[in-house]
Amino acid sequence: MLILPSANRVYAGASVELTAAELAVFSAAVLGGGLSEAKPTELGGVSYLAFESDPLTPRAAAFLANVSGCYALFEVSQGLLRPVEIPRLDRYDDDLITIQKYPGKTNEQFTKLLLNVTLMTSAFASEMLDRKLAVLDPLCGRGTTLNQALMYGYDAAGVDLDQKDYDAYTTFIKAWLKRKRIKHKTDYDGPVRREGKTVGRRLQVSVAASKDDYRTGQTQRLDVVCADTTRAREFFKPGSFDVVVTDAPYGVQHGSRSSATALARRPLALLAAAAPAWATLLRPGGAVGVAWNALVASRDATASVLADAGLEPVDSGPYRQFRHRVDQGITRDILVAGKP
Ligand SMILES: C[S@@+](CC[C@H](N)C(=O)[O-])C[C@H]1O[C@@H](n2cnc3c(N)ncnc32)[C@H](O)[C@@H]1O
Fold it and tell me: Which run of H or E residues covers position 22?
């Protein structure tokens, strides 16, 4: 596997280890454990990640095509590289994911890794290529996870308390859909009221990748709410998501952005307050994947918070290999937990 050149910049040297761990998770979940441990190797002066397996079926290659760090895949035979076809799920132009730039954005490649690893841990891993899954990011910021979910053809829902983030994302996505002439319909765009009081704002859009899909009702739903995530149950039905994927506040200031709440400066307290709601919104068999700053909350403490919400943290083998340095104040880690 040739790793995306941008990955080196994103992960400051950890891209090989992270991609190897992601491959191990894919192998266990959907490839029958058929890949050997991936190791860095050099061929003709270029770095690759090498692994052994039986000849890849087209379906196995289609899974590997979506590995976040995968740039190209080759079969090595008699010292020569033969390209393997990698049909990605991606159904929109990739500027959907790359245009928005702002302090505090979760890197898009890392977001894809987190979504993949969470999906692979859920009971629906084998359906990744076949079904329209439903993804919730309950701390969605300006929508990096939502855009990745749309890219895969899934339904995407998000919650964020920060009105500036909500406004920036909804403005972006409406303009983008229009400019790209993507068939869509706004189902709702306005305040959410409960008992005469405004408790948030909401944008609901149905989107289709082609006119035919739109005509035949094969639409994806984008649903974004501006509200406190601890109230997420008020906006969605229990059991309506296959995966919950989120990048928690880092407990440090991001450039000029102020934290939305006092809880945002205490990420563990925020997780503890919100995880029960998130767990309720998951279908049985679903999984939660959280990224957080391991310098402000330990892995054990984060796992306990998810376990207290009735989830089952997965903490073996490759799942312990996602920890990586982002900058001086942030060392990011991932924790995934399943809903029984
Ligand atoms: C690390 S950022 C997520 C960034 C996002 N993945 C992106 O790329 O734009 C964490 C987000 O949590 C939000 N947040 C903090 N406390 C919250 C709360 N109580 N309810 C909802 N959102 C909250 C912040 O506004 C911030 O956007």
Answer: helix 15-30
